[in-house]
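Marked as duplicate of an earlier ticket. Keeping the data here for the record.
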Amino acid sequence: MSSFSTGLYGSTISGIVSNVNDAFSGKTSGINVSSIVSELMQVEDQPEVQLQSQQTTVHSQITALTGISTQLTDLYSSENSLKDILGAFSQNTTGSSDAAIVSASAGSSATAGTHSVTVSKLATISSSYSGYISSGTSLGGQQIVVGYGPDSSNPLSSDTINIPSTDTTLQQVASYINAGKYGVTASAVTDAQGSRLVLVSKASGAVGNLTVTSPATSFNNSGGVDAQLSVDGVPVDSASNTVTGAIPGVTLSLGAADPNTPVLISVQPDTSQASQAIQTFVDAYNAVIGSINSQYTLNSSGQEGVLAGDSMLRFLQSSLLSLVTTSVSGAGQYVNLQSMGIEMQNDGTLQVNSTNLSKALSSNFSDVQTFFQSPKGWGVSAGTQLLQLTDPTLGPVAADINGLNQTNRSLTDQINDFEVRMATVKDQLTTQYDNLNTLLQEYPMQLQEIAGQLSSLPNATSSSKS
């Protein structure tokens, strides 16, 4: 029994004896059974208090490990983005010597380089407008035929639009056309001379050229043209001012035509995204190491964290430190994180030397990419280790949490069993002290009865005097 329990037991017994003596001597009419049983149960409950204290510690350990597990998963995700061949190291950025004429965007499949682009013509959109519709004249019940394509006599496709007879105004006609699945948009335009129906092709370039006819009115057609440009001296025809395929993986956006001004379009790796991905990894790593370090730091009471005595935590700390200091060969000039500016600090955390990393990314991007993504590179090796550490079943943290959960369940069972036994003990104590209380309450009456019997005996007075 602990010194605390011993002291509590002694104090409880002393109080009970005093309570009984007071009742026995007549100072009180009996004993406080409820109070006595409550004090005794405090002593009896001490093993449960200890079990509950153990369970509280286990809960704290599970919570701390769950947090570390989440941080490990974040670390694994950030490392995966470094070795993902479609991730941050595969992103490109573009530049233009005259973005007003042509700008560009590049996907992950683009190849770094510089290209010369000259824009001779922009793609335009075809339109067609009717003759003036006199007041009181309606297109309701009429038919409009729209042909699409560069050859008006042989359109690539066509729409036959039958205007409902109920649509008596041009605005109603335009609304009806716009509600349909036609290749044009319509509007009613009114000027000083009257109103006209205007149709605009939904497709730019020659392929969207309109040829509109109707028995109700004549239409004037304005043809669209394809964009004309050259890329590195190769002529390119595009129905749209957004050009894809002229440079693999690059989308050109044409803004103006200037046949006398070649525009230089550059494509290069997006070092800012690569740098951010590296910083994200460093932050995720430092979060895990920081949580581990905090377990070995003394608090204001001079105590370490709840996991300080957990050998698994030391193993995890050692594994992570080994992970970020490992060197590899056959992956370019960079052999470890330190060599590209990701430096280890005294507390085991990492810090990015922005000058060195920026130099590595701008001067030797492909070697940095190889370090993270080649089969023999650091990224693949680190990914394998982190996969093992974060395994939800066999990983060390998961196994530790599973073991603590089993301990927690065992403690819960012990507490439940103990409380069942203590309920029986409480009933027994209550019965015992109820009986004692009854005896103590009857004692004065028994004394009076005995005294009365004695006083009724012959010569009781003289005997009592003698």
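See parent ticket for discussion. Residues 136 and 168 are 9 Å apart (CA to CA).
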